[in-house]
Design a protein that fits this description.
The structure holds 2 protein chains of 2 kinds. By secondary structure, chain A is α/β, with parallel strands linked by helices. Helix content of chain A is 43%, strand content 29%. The radius of gyration of chain A is 13 Å and the shape is globular. Chain B has 2 domains: 2-188, Rossmann fold (3-Layer(aba) Sandwich), CATH 3.40.50; 208-451, Phosphatase 2c, domain 1. Chain A binds chain B through residues 22-24, 26, 30, 54-55, 57-59, 61-69, 93-96, 99, and chain B through 251-256, 296-301, 303, 321-324, 340, 342-344, 347-348, 370, 374, 380, 382, 385, 419-420.
């Protein structure tokens, strides 16, 4: 069972995904995510936590690309946080691992979310 | 008016009502709407509810009254006859027979009846017939919380206690009717959508190649198992002007009608863009540019394996844009895989990257989509790409290989195994007997070659 949790931080937003991110869910996830992004204001920072994802199908990958596009359109920053082995392999197969900016450690998360709030 | 002739005494069910409304004798029942209105007990909206407007019988909601009391049956018939298509039955056995024969849409159901009670009727309909649509309004003289809760738990939609108020009964049947009409329109909308998608799917199947390639040394087997009607998978092969063969295997992210539409865009571009001799690289770059422009924003993308086999079957030029690896099988040796040479298409602008592989005589090429390996062996355990490549290599090298049996041989007799579309192409390149002046020199190079 997949889930998406939204956690607004001081100057950035965390979106945690878990379970199987598949076609059956992605349309509804896109609608929910779009509402969240629209509430984030200018130059948003969105960190997508992928530690608990157990499977991504092509629609799931498309959902990550969709989030990236929406944030970039608003001149924001979008990061994948600690993508696990399943996510790594899936993104590697379609050669999109380097397309996304990834954060692998907590200290990196702190520095990126602080630095990116600058003018 | 059979009902009225049998119900010419004042109806005991109406003597006491929750709201203290009037007692009506049978002669008044047929004038019930007018009487209720004249008494000012109904608003114009409620009067409208009771109004006898001409309706096509086919559009009337079918109501089944089930009660062992003829008085109750006749009284309900008198109340409902102008607005609904009615049938009355005396017990649960008769009710189930009628239900299975004519499928009523609303059932007003007594609980305590001879032969088969109301609770058993609900269980049969909800569990054995697995019908969750029939609106069941329980009408019983028993007002115990236990029975009410049990009836609702078993699948009743509503519950009304005898004696009942005629207006309340009409209002509740009207609620049921709204539900029935909503279900009808949902079914109709679904049927329309289903037919349209089926049309798309039929058209889509016609876009897939069926004729064998012209080249005498090439035989192709294909497998196409869409997860629903319309699919995002696309495969193709066609002869090139130099007698070589172009082969395509592609997968649009997601599935259904949208993916099918994008798939037809890809096919059109592959088949008809540019000159017949357009290079693979320029074709893939054009595809990427167009897909990025038209579908990129929503996160949709296409993975693509496209290859040209030259006319003497000695080389394979290919581009793998984020697609599952192609497989090359030669003389029983372990499969050589052809992994992605560039990212999936439609996401960002990029240059195509071409590779070349030298082929030996009697080679089998195998291309497939992710639906072939993204399925659960058991809950939480996916079959997976690595395992699929290992088993597919064995299966597709068999001389009598039949792709239709691929999943049966993988231990999944019921295909498609997952919720994704499944496509596969097995291409057998067999040595033809050339004339002596056509025998090519053996190429020393046997590994993948990179041409950026």
């Amino acid at each position: 069972m997949a889930a998406m949790q939204h956690e607004p931080m001081a100057n950035w937003t965390k979106l945690s995904l878990s379970g199987k991110i598949t076609y059956e869910l992605t349309q509804s996830l896109k609608t929910q995510a779009e509402t969240i992004i629209n509430q984030m204001g200018e130059r948003p920072i969105l960190v997508c936590d992928l530690r608990e994802v157990t499977f991504l199908d092509s629609s799931g990958i498309g959902f990550l690309v969709f989030l990236n596009n929406k944030i970039r359109q608003r001149n924001g920053h979008y990061y994948l946080y600690q993508p696990n082995e399943v996510v790594h392999k899936t993104l590697d197969l379609v050669q999109l691992l380097d397309f996304f900016e990834r954060i692998e450690t907590e200290s990196e998360l702190i520095s990126r979310t602080q630095v990116d709030t600058g003018p | 008016m059979l009902v009225l002739s049998r119900c010419h005494t004042s109806c005991p069910l109406l003597r006491s009502t929750k709201h203290g409304r009037g007692q009506y004798d049978a002669s008044e029942i047929c004038r019930l709407p007018e009487k209720l209105a004249s008494e000012g007990n109904v608003t114009s909206q409620r009067f409208d509810m009771l109004e006898n407007t001409p309706q096509d019988m086919d559009t009337l909601v079918r109501v089944m009254i089930v009660d062992d009391s003829s008085t109750v049956r006749h009284y309900l018939e008198a109340i409902l006859q102008d607005k609904y298509r009615l049938v009355s039955r005396r017990d649960g056995i008769e009710a189930l027979e009628e239900y299975r024969k004519n499928r009523p849409e609303i059932c007003i159901l007594d609980m305590n009846m001879p032969r088969l009670g109301g609770l058993e009727v609900i269980r049969h309909i909800r569990r054995e017939d697995d019908d969750q649509d029939l609106f069941i309004l329980v009408l019983t003289s028993e007002d115990s919380l236990e029975q009410k809760s049990e009836a609702l738990h078993e699948g009743a939609n509503d519950y009304l206690v005898k004696p009942f108020d005629a207006l309340e009964m009409l209002a509740r049947v009207r609620v049921a009717e709204r539900q029935v009409r909503l279900n009808r329109s949902l079914r109709q909308a679904y049927a329309t959508m289903y037919r349209e998608i089926e049309e798309v799917a039929r058209l889509q199947r016609r876009l897939l190649p069926t004729a064998p390639p012209h080249h005498p040394g090439i035989t192709v087997q294909s497998l196409y198992l869409p997860s629903s009607q319309a699919s995002g998978d696309y495969f193709d092969y066609f002869s090139l002007p130099d007698e070589g063969l172009r082969v395509v295997m592609a997968d649009v992210s997601g599935h259904g009608a949208k993916a099918a539409f994008i798939m037809s865009m890809v096919r059109t571009m592959v088949r008809f863009s540019g000159s017949p001799t357009q290079s693979l690289s320029s074709l893939v770059e054009l595809l990427n540019e167009q897909l990025h422009r038209f579908i990129g924003e929503e996160g949709d993308f296409v993975t693509l394996f496209i290859a040209d086999i030259n006319d003497d079957l000695s080389t394979l030029e290919y581009i793998n844009a984020g697609h599952a690896p192609g497989m090359v099988l030669q003389n029983g040796s372990p499969p050589r895989t052809l992994p992605a040479t560039m990212p999936a298409l439609g996401i960002f602008p990029q240059k195509a990257r071409l590779n070349t592989v030298d082929l030996e005589p009697d080679t089998i090429l195998f291309f497939f989509t992710d639906g072939c390996y993204e399925w659960d062996v058991r809950p939480g355990t996916m079959f997976g790409l690595k395992r699929f490549i290992k088993h597919a290599a064995r299966i597709i090298q068999q001389p009598d290989c039949n792709l239709d049996n691929l999943f049966a041989e993988l231990g999944r007799p019921h295909s498609p195994p997952g919720s994704d579309d499944v496509s596969a192409l097995r291409i057998h390149l067999q040595e033809t007997i050339p004339s002596t002046d056509q025998i090519p020199e053996e190429s020393p190079h046997r590994g993948p070659r990179n041409h950026t």
